[in-house]
Design a protein that fits this description.
Blueprint: H1 13-21, H2 34-43, H3 54-67, H4 75-89
Length: 90
């Protein structure tokens, strides 16, 4: 397991918040740390965290796809782009 510390200048916090809102994150926690994680989450304001199950995330993305809101590219078109980039380097 790797630990990372990031120091961010205060003026960049709004940009960081916007970036973080766009992320979906899966975190694997060792069993022995779950009580500490739960205590930490409870210490945060309710609006600071949103925990969704993987099922909810999948259903949300399926609904987005079915509604036509999700930008998609046909597989063949995507593979043709990759092939063209590789061939251009040869």
């Amino acid at each position: 397991m790797q630990s990372v510390t990031i120091n961010i200048q205060e003026s960049y916090i709004p940009r960081l918040n916007a970036f973080l809102k766009s992320l979906s994150v899966t975190i694997n926690i060792q069993e022995s740390y779950i009580p500490r994680l739960n205590a930490f989450l409870k210490s945060l304001p309710k609006e600071a965290t949103m925990i969704r199950s993987l099922d909810a995330e999948i259903l949300s993305r399926v609904d987005e796809y079915k509604s036509g809101k999700m930008k998609t590219t046909p597989l063949r078109e995507g593979m043709d782009r990759i092939k063209a980039k590789i061939e251009a380097k040869i």
